[in-house]
Design a protein that fits this description.
four-stranded mixed beta sheet, Ribosomal Protein S5, domain 2, Alpha-Beta Plaits
């Protein structure tokens, strides 16, 4: 079985409150985009020698640490606590940049849950899969829905929204700068929004530039001014809206037509896809 976990972008991201548990409440709109990883899962033969019930092989990137700590394996192990799963081979081909604010790991996790549900004929409902995904990561439930959603809490409280960017083009620029959660929150001062991103996305896209804000930019751009430079370059190329996704470090621009950026981002990871 083959499945294609997709990336997401954040349309606005506001940090509205610090919680007593140390986490932060946020408001954002998640939007899935057709930049995908590939996961193939097959049942493992009984005679295949493996110390693990989920034997994961990751391709196209070098992963740090043990593959058994990958969210794909964690998804398998979580389901195996409740269901009798066959031993499987899992092959993960990475195209979504890591540490990029694009949700690649969370998407792999959620799509693995959905793939196992189908392969093993578990009969789980979306609600059941969402509950399991929520125990593995705040962004994971969104990828069970896999359609535009407004999110609150730490990202786990989801409300589907009517929003289509179909026909537009998105240019993603990933400068391969790892940004830790600590760094991203270093200059954040949580405050309630005067206008929610949920309301702003209902306006014409041409108005988003002045109103739709990612609060992490103010913090991250201080230490990484090249990200602000990329954002301005995206606008210079004709983007109708540009932003950082999540806590970075990927930047993206939305365009009405394809854009030729030549050698502007030479040495950086770029993806141009149609929405």
């Amino acid at each position: 079985m083959i499945t294609f976990p997709c990336a997401k972008i954040n349309l606005g991201l506001n940090i509205v409150e610090k919680r007593i548990d140390g986490y932060h409440n946020l408001e954002t709109v998640f939007y899935p985009i057709p930049l995908t990883d590939v996961i193939e899962i097959t049942e493992m033969h009984d005679e295949f020698p493996s110390d693990y019930k989920c034997n994961l092989n990751v391709m196209n990137i070098k992963i740090e640490g043990d593959a058994q700590s990958n969210l794909v394996v964690k998804a398998y192990n979580k389901l195996a606590q409740q269901y009798d799963l066959p031993r499987i081979h899992a092959h993960l081909y990475k195209r979504i940049p890591t540490q990029a604010g694009l949700g690649g790991g969370s998407s792999d996790c959620a799509f693995m849950i959905k793939a196992l549900n189908e392969l093993a004929k578990l009969g789980m409902s979306d609600k059941e899969m969402i509950e399991i995904a929520a125990t593995l990561g705040a962004d994971c439930p969104f990828f069970i829905y896999n359609k535009p959603c407004y999110a609150e809490g730490i990202g786990e409280k989801l409300q589907p929204v009517s929003l289509s960017l179909s026909g537009m083009y998105i240019l993603i620029v990933h400068p391969n700068i790892p940004i830790s959660t600590k760094e991203a929150f270093s200059l954040i001062k949580p405050k309630p929004t005067t206008k929610k991103c949920l309301d702003i996305i209902k306006q014409p896209i041409d108005t988003w530039r002045d109103e739709l804000v990612n609060d992490f930019e103010a913090s991250v751009f201080v230490n990484h001014p090249q990200l602000d430079k990329i954002k301005q370059e995206l606008y210079n190329l004709g983007a109708v809206y540009a932003s950082m996704s999540g806590s970075g470090s990927s930047m993206y621009g939305l365009f009405y037509s394809p854009v030729d950026y030549g050698n502007l981002y030479e040495g950086l990871t770029t993806h141009m896809v149609t929405l």
